[in-house]
User: What shape does this take?
Amino acid sequence: MQNMNYGKMMKQVQEMQKQMVKAQEELANQEVEASAGGGMVTVVVTGDLKIKSIKIDPGAVDPDDVEMLEDMVLAATNEALRSAQELASSRMNGLTGGLNIPGLM
Assistant: This one.
């Protein structure tokens, strides 16, 4: 009888693995966007944490204040990455029922 429970559990684990692979593939196709400086800098990141694009309004380029532009790029990038991590975490928690499984987002 113990073998039947083990077999059922293994089937459930395999199904969860398939769902997780599918979710990761879907995350790669989802995008989040964040901006800084009132929209002067916009960063797009995929759900699998890859930076897809960075757009900089020409008005943000001031040769006398490059540091401000750097700060806006940094702020927008960090916010976009945070949003993408939140998206991934939400998606994975839906599959695992909130279980904390090491190695998952």
